[in-house]
Structures are given as C-alpha cells and as structure tokens.
Model the fold of this input.
Amino acid sequence: MQLIIPACNEERRLPATLRALRAYALSTGTVPRPPLEVLVVDNGSTDRTAEVAASLDSPAMRVRVLHCAEPGKGAAVRAGIAAATSDVVGFMDADGATDLAAFEAAAVRLAAGADVVIGSRAAEGAETEARHTRLRSVGAGAYRRAAAVLVPGIADTQCGFKIFRGDLARDVFAATETAGFSFDVEVLARCLDLRARVEEIPVVWTDVPGSTFSPLRHGLRSFADLLAIGWRLRRRPTVATRPTPLRPGLPPEVSRELAEPGLRLVGER
Ligand SMILES: Nc1nc2c(ncn2[C@@H]2O[C@H](COP(=O)(O)OP(=O)(O)OP(=O)(O)O)[C@@H](O)[C@H]2O)c(=O)[nH]1
Ligand SMILES: [Mg+2]
Done:
C-alpha cells in the first residue's frame, strides 16, 4: 500500500509520525499488513521537511519525497495519488492525529467490499478531544452543514485519514480541481457520483499542536471552494443526473460508454 502524507513545514511533527508508521507496519495485527510505502509530498516548506522525511527512509518502510509546484494540501495529495501505483492508496496528515489502528479497520472494510474508507470523528465510537477555539468550532459547524449538501450522508469530510481502491482514487483525483483544504469534499462527492461505496469508520483522534490551518486565511477560502465544487459538479453530467439513454435505441450503459469512454460505474462492477 502507498500512503500519501502532504507536508508543509512539518519538520517537527513528521518524524514521530513516520516512526510510528514504521513501527505499526512492522507489528503484527489481526489482519495481514501489506508492505507500506510513504510518499511525502512537500510544497512550500521553508524548513527541513524534505530532509527529515528522506532521512527516515528504510528497507522496512520506504519513504519517498515528492515536490509539487502547485500550493495547497489538495494539490499535494493529488500529486501523490497520481504518482502512486498500488492497489490500495491512502492519505494521512503529518501530525499523526489519527490513531493508526484505523489502518486495520480500513483493511477489514475494504476486504468486505468498500471502495473508500474514511476516518470519522463523528461516527459512533470515535474518540476525540475538543480543543479548537470558539471561532474554529463555529466555523467547523457551518462548514459541516455546507459540505453536507454536497456529500449527503457523510458526517466528517475533513478527518486526515482516507483509504481508497487505487484505481478509483487515481480516476477521482485526476478530475479533482480543489487545491486547498476542501479537496476532500470534491473527492468524496465525485466518489458518490460514481456510486462508490464510501464508509466512515470511527477513529481515535488526538490533537497535536502545530496546526497549519489558519481559520482566517484558510477558512474563508474553504467555504469559497465549497461553492466552486457545487458549481462544478452541478454542471458536470453525471450518471445520477442522466438516467435516460443519450442515443435512443441503445441500452443506457452502452450510450454512456460512448459518451464518456472509460467511465466505469463503480457500484456496478
Ligand atoms: N504539501 C502540503 N501540505 C499541507 C499544506 N497545508 C497543509 N498541509 C498538510 O496537511 C495536513 C493537515 O494539516 P494540519 O495542519 O494538521 O491541519 P488540519 O488537520 O486540517 O487541522 P487541525 O485540526 O488543526 O490539525 C498536514 O500534514 C499538513 O502539513 C500545503 O499547502 N502543502
Ligand atoms: Mg491536523
């Protein structure tokens, strides 16, 4: 499995996360652990993020550092997914806020037929610490309500832990345009449009100081991006909004394939 870690000025938080990942990959669990390769995608770091990441490369867990010209967490994750070739891919934050036991839960769900497994601080059984400032909490509530319009049924779009079937991730991320923190919403909306099975799993989430998210600088931008995502996806002809055959006389699947060669209906494979 290849795991993307977007990292911007993470020289302090990233080493502990990479060490914990390596220890986890080497430990034995109740389900077999596939070899793990980490792709750290750095854009805009002014510290030694790339050097500290590269120094933690080892045969037990490969760590590769990629650079991405476009700024933003979304752009970095997209670049990482585009470079990943494994059957299962995922991404995780550099702060290591999500307990790594989520990997095992995700593997179980994928084996049971899920296409996408996302960590959730809102799912029953999740454990989180409330610690955000009042401004951030109010903003997060409003953001959740706005995001729910685009991805109905998904309670926590923003947890930094998501695992995908590799082919689906590559298709969906290639179409995703959001470069900032709202990219998760566009990715999930596109997965739902493709009828992918998206499952939320409860996570144990611990706050790690040193957040790169600034409510003023990134918050407003994140809301603006939700509007842009809504606009983009509303205009995009999707399977859900185009139920009738485009060419009379042909079955819907055939005319759909003619209209959008290569489109695979995830729910119908
Ligand atoms: N490559 C890259 N990574 C970024 C950028 N902005 C944020 N990140 C990474 O995205 C991940 C999540 O950022 P955090 O700072 O933990 O913010 P958050 O998880 O959204 O918010 P908190 O709840 O405050 O932790 C971290 O791994 C960051 O280094 C960026 O512009 N480029
Ligand atoms: Mg974080």
